Amino acid sequence: MSRIVVITGFESFNLDLYRQAAQLAQSRCPDLDIQIYSDRSLSQEPEIIENALKDADVFFASLIFDYDQVIWLRERAENIPIRLVFESALELMSLTRLGKFVIGDKPKGMPKPIKFILSKFSSGKEEDKLAGYLSFLKTGPKLLKFIPAKKVQDLRNWLIIYGYWNAGGNENFASMCWTIAEKYLDIEVGEIPEPIETPNMGLLHPEYEGYFTSPP
């Protein structure tokens, strides 16, 4: 059984929702073990998280900034084969590895087209390159159609995964896990839905399924 360990910051109130999403993902992939924790769990139950990370195939983290937690996680996650870290302290984001796509402490070796794109998000100084990735995350998914599928497949998959995560919601979280499972864990999933996009602003009504992007 393959294991994905997810740790999110500032999300304690959403833990039940993420665990429901994990159950949805596992209902379609019985061979997938998805464990959900928050940054609060790092303080309250570090032994449990440490044991979970020991046998993890995928480490996924978001919004982790506390220095002590970052260092603690780096030491325990650095040997996990797949590491996906978004919108966190740069020391933790530098662990990111998805196939041949690696950020690292000193990012280099990226394909020339991607280097060109990333150069638009930082000053070009070595110490600013990781910060450039943070800006790139916000725009990257919109650039998918311009990224050749074969030459930089892992980068493309990284952006697809982030697109699901950034869109939020149970269905998107499950689709993100299915994407990781099928492309990197040798688990056959089948058709995976496209991200369900939610606008940054909108109107909700309890008697309407969905949302309004402008006043009705």
What does this structure look like?
The chain has helices spanning about 15-30, 40-45, 45-55, 65-75, 90-95, 110-120, 130-140, 155-165, 170-185; strands spanning about 1-10, 30-40, 60, 80-85, 95-100, 100. About 45% of the residues lie in helices and about 15% in strands. The protein has one domain (about 1-185). The model has no long low-confidence stretch (mean pLDDT about 85). The chain is globular and about 50 Å long. By secondary structure, it is of the alpha/beta class. A four-stranded parallel beta sheet has the order 2-1-3-4, sandwiched between helices. A two-stranded antiparallel sheet has the order 5-6. Strand 1, helix 1 and strand 2 form a beta-alpha-beta unit. Helix 8 (about 155-165) runs antiparallel to helix 9 (about 170-185). It is an enzyme of class 6 (ligase). Its EC number is 6.6.1.1.
- Biggest sheet: strand arrangement: 2-1-3-4
What percent strand? 5-15%
Number of domains as seen in the coordinates: 1
Give me the secondary-structure category.
alpha/beta
**Spatial shape:** globular
Report helical residue fraction. 40-55%
Uncertain residue segments: none
Average pLDDT score = 83
> Terminal Cα separation, in Å?
48 Å
CA-based gyration radius:
18 Å
Number of distinct helices: 9
Q: How would you characterize the largest beta sheet?
A: 4 strands, parallel
SSE order: EHEHHEHEHEEHHHH
Number of strands: 6
